[in-house]
Amino acid sequence: MLFGLLALVLSINAFAQMPQFNAEDMAKMRADRIKETCKTNDDQYKKIYDYFLKESKQMMEQFQQGGQGGPGGFDMEAMQKRMQEQEKFLKGVLTADQYKKYDEEQQRMRQGGGPGGFGGGFGR
């Protein structure tokens, strides 16, 4: 989980330094990645996109305001809580099989199987 949090913080930091991206782009990349891996339907995709859009806006605002300590202005405890809330949200939106695929991909990302993960990575 710590590696996932670190990847998320680093990707947000890199993301915040790229002016051509915005919260909508970030939410779309994250939702698209889950859609591709978990084969979500349109309703699931919209819920996931909306959730990530809200989260991305909050995180970017926090980053711009300097946040509450930690690297890049992020509080690690707050980030852990945010990740737990994300997991809970996704469990409620995805089917058991889809969530299993999501979890497997998260494990692969944590083990260095690719950049980013669902936490907000760029590319594959």
What is the radius of gyration? 14 Å
Q: Tell me the helix content.
A: over 70%
Give the end-to-end Cα distance, rounded to a whole number of Å: 19 Å
Label the structural class. mainly alpha
**Number of DSSP helices?**
5
Given as residue ranges, the uncertain stretches (5+ residues, pLDDT < 50) are 119-124
Please provide the count of β strands: 0
What composes the largest sheet? none
Give the topology string: H per helix, E per strand: HHHHH
Number of domains: 1
Mean pLDDT: 78
What's the shape?
Answer: globular
Beta content comes to: under 5%
Protein model, in words:
It is a single chain. The protein is mostly helical. The radius of gyration is 14 Å and the shape is globular. α2 runs antiparallel to α3. It has one domain. The longest helix has 23 residues, at 42-64. 70% of the residues lie in helices and 0% in strands. The protein has helices at 2-16, 23-38, 42-64, 76-93, 96-110.
SSE blueprint and pairings:
Layout: H1 2-16, H2 23-38, H3 42-64, H4 76-93, H5 96-110
Helix pairs in contact: 2-3
What key attributes describe this structure?
0% strand; 124 residues; mainly alpha
